[in-house]
Design a protein that fits this description.
heterodimer, A: 167 residues, 7 helices, 77% helix, globular, B: Helix Hairpins
Amino acid sequence: MESLFFTIVTVVAIISGILVITCKNPINNALSLVMTFFCLATYYVMLDAPFMAAVQVMVYAGAIMVLIVFTIMLLNIRVDATKSHTHKVIAGSIIGFFTLLNALFVILKSRAALPTGPYSGETIRQVGHTELIGKEMFTNFLLPFEATSILLLVAIIGAVILAKKKL
Amino acid sequence: MVSLNSYLLVSAVLFSLGTIGVLTRKNAIVIFMCIELMLNSVNLTFIALSRHLGNLDGQIFVLFVMTVAAAEAAVGLALMIAFYNNKETIDVDDVNMLKW
């Protein structure tokens, strides 16, 4: 049952991934990308990470995609069917194909390390995923968490300065 | 129970699709979306391996990747708006002011 569900989600994810790179109209690309994000959120739920799924839907499918669609609408770019790709389609596809081959080789020829950490699926389901993430984040990863706030501040200031016509 | 390799394979396929998109498209916003696709496939790898290893560090890292992606979205789209104001286009082929 789970593997059947996984297959369905995988088919949807890959088809919408292909649509992201082939559609002519940027709005269609954006909607396909939202579909891919939802498929990834489904994977996260299947991997016992419901908090990550919620964050995925809120941050990616919500915030970032709204920003992208807003920019597409704001710029009102005309769709030019003949010029949507560069002339290097074949070269780019070959490079992407070799990337895939390389990744497949590494994945299929190597074995992942055996489980070492304390957080099995049982523990996560009993204690709660959000609580475990929160504990981990505010103890072991406190400094990166604080650094993130500075990064966001810089991004806000940078975006305002760049997008303004005259300061 | 779906094996770890299946998740890694899906992630590899999505990453390659993103690579092809970045290398072949001309519209800067579409290239940006392909980069988001690549970041997401890496996130899937992180979470699958984190689940396999029983270690939450990978999932914390995914949160940081999402933060960086959000910051990148804000700055990148602001750059595109600024560029559009100057050149009336966002084709990457027209961004060649530093070329000589």
